[in-house]
Design a protein that fits this description.
Bound molecules: fe (ii) ion
Distance between the termini: 18 Å
Structural class: mainly alpha
Number of helices: 7
Radius of gyration: 16 Å
Number of domains: 1
Order of helices and strands: HHHHHHH
């Protein structure tokens, strides 16, 4: 897909070391994905088609929050408080201020966050599967599949905003920047 790097092989062990922390961070990622989709509806209500797509997306992300919360509850855990997401913040810092660049960049950042979430949730599915934890493997596999579709939705919404060459250039920029940001972050029990 659009990612320019693969997650380091040692990431799984670090992320799985504290399951409550990982699930708590995951819950907040899903919550922020829902909020971000609705924030785009709030900022761009005149863009008719995307209002429907983004609202459906927010609905699906909210259902992911419910699923992560249910899994936490089955372990007898409540979600921990959210901690700053340096990954998303560094990407959002690249969003330009003027339209239509602002919307283009916001949609591309969302596409990269979804694509990276897809990669990582699939790594969790595989890693927990190899440990024989089928419940977690199925859980992450199902949610990971959805994130891949979401990345495609954001790209679909972004593509018509500018001429093709401008789109490709910005996609390449965020591809390189995302890989750079990720490489500088420590491995921890969180999704990014
Ligand atoms: Fe999600
Ligand atoms: Fe998503």
């Amino acid at each position: 897909m659009i990612l320019r790097s693969s997650t380091h092989p040692r990431w799984f062990a670090a992320s799985a070391a504290d399951l409550q922390a990982l699930l708590s961070d995951h819950l907040h990622c899903e919550r922020k994905a829902a909020e971000n989709s609705l924030a785009l509806v709030w900022r761009y209500p005149h863009r008719g088609t995307s209002v429907a797509q983004l609202s459906r997306l927010a609905h699906e992300e909210t259902s992911h929050v419910v699923q992560v919360a249910a899994l936490l509850a089955r372990h007898g855990w409540t979600p921990r408080a959210d901690t700053p997401n340096r990954y998303a913040r560094a990407l959002l810092a690249e969003v330009r201020g003027r339209e239509p660049e602002r919307l283009l960049d916001a949609l591309l950042v969302a596409a990269f966050i979804e694509a990276r979430s897809h990669e990582r949730l699939m790594l969790l599915a595989r890693g927990f599967g190899e440990r024989g934890d089928d419940e977690l493997a199925r859980f992450y596999g199902a949610l990971g599949d959805a994130e891949e579709r979401h990345a495609e939705t954001f790209l679909e919404l972004a593509r018509p905003l500018v001429p093709e060459a401008g789109f490709d250039e910005r996609l390449a920029f965020f591809g390189a920047r995302e890989a750079e940001i990720l490489a500088a972050l420590p491995h921890a029990s969180r999704i990014h």
